[in-house]
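Appendix B, record 7
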Amino acid sequence: MSKSVNLKDYIIQVRGVSYKPEDSSLIPKDDYIPILRANNIRNGKINYDELIYVKKSKVKENQILKKGDILICTSSGSKELVGKSAMFEDDILCSFGAFCKVIRANNIDNLYLNNYFQSPKYRNDIKKSSTGANINNLNDSDFDNLTINLVSESEQRNISNELIKIIEILDLKNNQREKLKKLIFAQYNYMFDNIYNNQKDFERKKIRDLVENNISKLKSTYSEGEIINYIDISSIDKEKNIVKGTKKYNVGENPSRAQQCLEINDILMSTVRPNLKNIAVLTEKYDNPIGTSGFCVLRCKNCKKNWLLYSILTNEFTNSMNKKTTGASYPAIKNSDVLDFELPVPPIELQNEFENFVESINYIYKQLEESITKIESLLEGRMNYYFN
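Structure tokens (predicted):
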């Protein structure tokens, strides 16, 4: 039998370490300790990318992370980050920054508590707490006032074991998905080599010689009142390199940046902050698709789509574009920066071979996505059953 209780009697909250720039370092040093920050919480897991190091003298004993601690981002300029959490499970000495806090279980199973912090109920409740004046901040009282279904210790362990098994399967599937993407890049490098080295001595051509250079404009194509499907940078899923959705507008009421008429299989590259690699292929058929003027639209004419897509996804291409950005607060490149870039162009037979390889991987990827969606739905259903 369960009862709904406030968390305040079952958790201990610890604030993160405050420090000055002169007390920190980007590299490990003697008598310094690594600090986890909001960027180290990703998909319910802790990663150790972009660590900073702070003098041990600035860290209190209770701010040293312990196995089973739940690290939560409590303050950020990004609404998406605030409230995100992950359990610390490693045998390393580290602490956490002032924009985070740690929650320690007190008379409650820490795995059960961690599963609660990954549940839809927690996300919905914490979203309500973070609205209003303190939209990007969470206070101690926000966590104290959260409610959780409390069951016996044995039930907590049983529930945690069930959910952990589902999460483990989900992690396995997600890892397989990541490896498929890496496999495509490995095949690209094997077949075509580095786009700068060009050890295979392919003929170099500008991208503008490979694509359609005349992209029709909205004003010359559609009449006022017609419905368009608008695609902007927020429409891009940069992990999958696809367009994940559109916004419908009547012509005449559309955003001023809705300008470019798109076609299926167009490659859309954001010219703003090219380091973010906001690049996608329009794979779904939409009625009257219109792209933002912030895209460089690459419509393949003398090359294959997947070869060009993975060429501009390479770090070498991205680094080259980064060097051409202008504007400090809104770094961007021009379409001409992309179109004038020279690529070593392999024979069409090799491009066809790579095209077929990518399509076969994409087929497996799609099946894997469907499996992941089902497992995610199962996990959400079980979490709702136990925590709502």
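Remarks on this record: The radius of gyration is 25 Å. The chain has a mean pLDDT of 93.
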